[in-house]
Design goal:
Hypothetical Cytosolic Protein, Chain: A, alpha+beta, 5 helices, three-stranded antiparallel β-sheet, single chain
């Protein structure tokens, strides 16, 4: 049996072309999480992480608290929906209900900033004259 000569173009892998830093940043993937209130996906920079600590819900501003976390859009709309659906205790895998007073006092949840929630009472609807 004769040994055949190998073609060098078949054996060698193609060389990677160096990509500039700006090009790399543009195609880099960023972490995406789902808001437990409205179930919309968003970048982690747009959402706030909350954690259950001793039966209370706490905002994890530095995203470093231990344990399972849930993600919410800032604003009272998504927090209210998550409470109504009992999504926080389910996402955090905590039995029972959680105290949300600490989260409600956080400045990010003080004013609804239009974070993908349903229109609040501050918006007025047009009234149609039935006659």
């Amino acid at each position: 049996m004769r040994a055949q000569a190998l073609d060098s173009t078949v054996v060698q892998r193609p060389r990677r072309v160096s990509v500039s830093t700006a090009e790399h940043q543009r195609h880099r993937s960023f972490p995406v999480r789902t808001c437990v209130g409205c179930r919309q996906r968003a970048l982690t920079g747009e959402l706030l992480r909350v954690v259950a600590v001793d039966g209370r819900l706490v905002v994890d501003g530095g995203r470093r608290l231990p344990g399972r976390g849930a993600w919410l859009h800032p604003g009272p709309g998504c927090l209210a929906r998550a409470e109504r659906k009992r999504a926080l205790s389910r996402a955090l895998r905590v039995p029972g209900t959680l105290e949300t007073d600490g989260v409600r006092e956080h400045p990010a949840f003080a004013v609804d900033i239009g974070s993908g929630t349903f229109p609040g009472p501050s918006e007025t609807r047009k009234q149609v004259d039935p006659s």
